[in-house]
Amino acid sequence: MTIENLKIPTVALGTWAWGDSGETGDGYFGSGLTRADLEELADRAHAAGFTLWDTAIVYGMGRSETVLGEVLKRYARNDYLLSTKFTPQAAGGGEDPMADMLEQSLGRLGTDYVDLYWIHNPTDVARWTPRLIPLLKSGKVKHVGVSNHNLVEIKLADQILGEAGFRVEAIQNHYSLLYRSSEDAGILDHCRNQGIPFFAYMVLEQGALSGKYSPENPLPQGTNRAQAYNDMLPRLTALTDKLASIGRSQDAAVPDVAVAWAIAKGTTPIIGVTKASYIDGLVRASRIKLTSDEIAELEALADAANVNTRGWWEKEMQG
């Protein structure tokens, strides 16, 4: 089984923020999203050929999956790809918590299968990985991946699946100019060698690399991301200035260049989308060709910023 027939788009669409209720302080982004806005966004994404939607049960504890399922009702099921996740930390106490969680996700998403099902975090790889096998055999899950796993855990999961004739078909980790631990730990090389797609999340560091925020214009107070990033903004100025100058030469904006960097590194960025205009940026990003000198300069400026953007849910990838 390979994931090639999934025809993974250049960029995948993230719906973490779709789990917000819209009330300030509730959820990670405090965003108020309307159904009409999201339908416009989906239509623009669809027209641009971005068809892979990534969600998870823990994004708003079901809200993201529910909203996504409603928005995608306007298309035939074979016109888009659904990616969602089993999160061990949220597992129930039944006989087969993974199968139970999948059924809940299918119900909210309004479908009878998901194209890509992930184990979200590596809590007891030997316990949870075998649970994917009956789901693959049932057809309710077409392909499987692991998220936030280090190389040892990836190889163990692959070995367990391999004994049943399956394999780890995708990796999803935090990867950005500011956080390249999956590269340092050899995970990107492993993916290249094995022909496994690597999905990069938090490529824009929740807006800190969007060019929209600066020490003078910090991220919105009262949000978790303001707490995580606002103190770093002065150290990111040189990097975001360079992203902006490359963008000007390519008729593109700062986030487009940051996304283009992730594409140039051989990854599939998962970019959170909350406005239709974001899709235009992803179209631009997918057309940008960065030179090796530009990539090296961006990475040198990122290293010089010397910030650690590892999420509270993540462990170091070395090991």
Automatic annotation (TrEMBL):
> Which key words tag this protein in UniProt?
Oxidoreductase
What InterPro entries would the database entry show?
AKR (IPR020471), AKR_Detox_Biosynth (IPR050523), NAD(P)_OxRdtase_dom_sf (IPR036812), NADP_OxRdtase_dom (IPR023210)
Which intervals of the chain form a coiled coil? none
NADP-dependent oxidoreductase domain span: 11-302
Please give the start and end residues of each transmembrane region.
none
Keyword Oxidoreductase (UniProt): yes
Q: Which Gene3D superfamilies match?
A: NADP-dependent oxidoreductase domain
The record's annotation in Pfam families points to: Aldo_ket_red
The protein's name in its UniProt record: Aryl-alcohol dehydrogenase-like predicted oxidoreductase
